[in-house]
Amino acid sequence: MAQALKRSALMKAAAARLHDRTILPTADESARHLETCRACPQFTEHDPKQGGAPTCAKCTSCSTKIVRFVLPRARFNCPLGQWRWGAAASPIQPPDRSRPGLGDARRVLIFHRAGYRWAELNKNYGHLARDGWDTKWVRTGNYAPPVDEVKALVKRYKPVAVIRWEEHGTLFVNRTWMASLDHLYSVGVIPLSMDCGYFDHWRTQMIDQYMPNGSSSIKRDWDYLATDVDWNRFDPRVRAYRQRVLDSMARVEATRPIAEPGYVALWLQFSAQLAKPKLRPKGTDAYEWAKRAINALTRAGLQVIVKAPPVSLGCKKDPAKLAIPEKAWVFKHKARGDLNAQIMRGAAWSVAISSSVSNEHTILWQPMTMVGRSFFSRMGVFHEPADWRGITKPPVVDVVARAKWINWWAEHQFYAEHVSPILDGAIRRAQERGSGS
Questions:
Q1: Is residue 427 within 8 Å of 161, Cβ to Cβ?
Q2: Most buried residue, 2, 121, 298, 425, by most Cβ within 10 Å?
Q3: 290 and 220 together in one domain
Q4: For 425, how many CA atoms within 13 A lie in the half-sphere containing its CB?
Q5: Same domain, 420 and 377
Q6: CATH assignment at residue 253
Q7: Where does 27-174 have alpha helices with state H?
Q8: Are residues 269 and 294 in the same domain?
Q9: How far apart are the two ends of the chain, measured CA to CA in Å?
Q10: How many CB atoms lie within 10 A of CB 230?
Q11: CA distance 377 to 276
Q12: Is the same domain home to 270 and 294?
């Protein structure tokens, strides 16, 4: 009974926080707010037909209230991040640059779980001291320290930001971290996440900002992203990686296909934890998920080719024996150098939960279905079906969404020695755009 009452109280508190973040003014209040901004000499209004939007360099109201305004066919972008067409943002005060350690200081707290991803953290953030950053490392027993410890550390060190390791943008976001996010935003400290990069996945890392609801900054930044792709924005090593992917496809196109074209490629991960609930019955491990996906595709009359995961599926069963041969052909991970290109060459489309191999599909502009929970969900980058039947439907590539996706990574991923400008950029965007989503 006590646990039930506690759970009920937590749910009510969460609902109250959600309500506070979604209070909207009336249309009249929004219109008056817009007129106030228009009276500001720093306000500029653009023609929405030309793809522009009204902008305001200084807004006295947006920093203290959430506003949804009603100007048709246009968006209002406030650098403080509080006003977005069609969405509500969580309130955040502009950085108080008079406070020591906030805004101008180059001090960050880095939370790291003992033994987890230590090599990546140490390799990358070792470069921060060289670039003048003051880093404070905090070892935690879990993926985030308790909120009281976070409060004490922030009060003591007064950092501009805190950073911790994340997986797929959402995996380690729990109640403890949500409570910490509430506090960090209330005192103007920017919460950031780190993970492996996208292109040249295992050799790069990325930095992103947690929004107040625990999500990625990608939704906030989507309208800022260009729809023209310029690969010169990336490090030369990323451009070399892209060229290797293109060259690999060119090589396999001159050879015999591994199967009759038109099959569906299924790319497996070591865990099914990130699969959306409707596509992962409770208790389903990665092995069982793979069998369900194969059965759904074969029942629809589709041939399936499976690429096994880089590590075991969390069980003792052999990934090479996922299904009987007449149902699916299974290739072991890294069986040969051009295997990914061989599989993609004849695939009508690919299916995965959330796999880094999607970066190769992005480079080659190939169709892909993703069924996992990740920070880029519902952005149109990949097809995201709601049920098992949806994975049997051919997806269509949204070239605009893919271009924005590529450009988002140009701002967020880096090689070790270039961590400082990416961190600078993440902090600058947080201060300019706030926590709008």
A1: yes
A2: 121
A3: no
A4: 17
A5: no
A6: 3.40.50
A7: 27-38, 118-130, 147-157
A8: yes
A9: 38
A10: 11
A11: 11
A12: yes
Q: 352 and 272 in contact (C-beta within 8 Å)?
A: no
Return contacts of 30-37, CB within 8 angstroms, 24+ apart. Answer: 30/67, 30/68, 30/69, 30/70, 31/69, 31/70, 33/61, 33/67, 33/69, 34/69, 34/71, 34/76, 36/60, 36/61, 37/61, 37/76
The one-digit pLDDT tens for each residue of the chain (437 residues) are 555 554 455 444 443 433 333 333 344 444 555 555 555 555 555 443 443 444 554 443 343 222 333 222 223 333 333 333 333 333 333 334 333 334 446 899 988 876 666 666 666 667 888 888 888 888 776 667 889 999 999 999 999 999 988 877 677 888 888 999 999 999 999 999 988 899 998 889 999 999 998 889 999 999 999 999 999 999 999 999 999 999 999 999 998 888 889 999 999 876 777 777 777 766 677 778 888 899 899 999 999 998 877 654 444 455 445 444 445 566 665 656 788 999 999 999 999 988 888 999 999 999 999 988 777 888 899 999 988 999 999 999 999 999 999 999 999 999 988 999 999 999 999 988 887 64
What is the number of domains present in the chain? 3
Whether 154 contacts 183, CB under 8 Å: yes
Paired tokens of 413: 């991923």
60 phi and psi angles, rounded to 5 deg: -85, -15
Place of tokens 């299904």: 323
Dihedrals φ, ψ of 348, to 5°?
-70, -40
* Residue that has been written with the tokens 């947006």 in this structure: 62
**Tokens 């959330």 — which residue?**
354
| 8-state DSSP, 84 | B
Residues 342 and 304 in one domain: yes
The C-alpha atoms of residue 187 and residue 160 are separated, in whole angstroms, by 10
Whether 135 and 110 have beta carbons less than 8 Å apart is answered as yes
Q: Which residues have CB under 8 Å from 421's CB, separation 6+?
A: 414
CA dist 71 and 37 (Å) reads: 13
**Cβ atoms of 201 and 241 closer than 8 Å:** no
Rounded to whole angstroms, the Cα distance separating 303 from 426 reads 44
Helices and strands in the chain, H and E counts: 12, 13
Judge whether 2 lies within some domain. no
Instruction: Note whether 251 and 136 are same-domain residues.
Output: no
- How big is the chain, counted in residues? 437
Q: Are residues 165 and 205 in the same domain?
A: yes
Phi-psi region of 319 (alpha: psi -120 to 50; beta: other; left: phi over 0): alpha
Structure tokens belonging to residue 6: 């506690």
- Domain housing 374: 236-399
The amino acid present at 193, given as its one-letter code, is S
- In the structure encoding, which two tokens stand for residue 314, read together? 């969390």
Burial class (CB in 10 A: 0-12, 13-18, 19+), 336: exposed
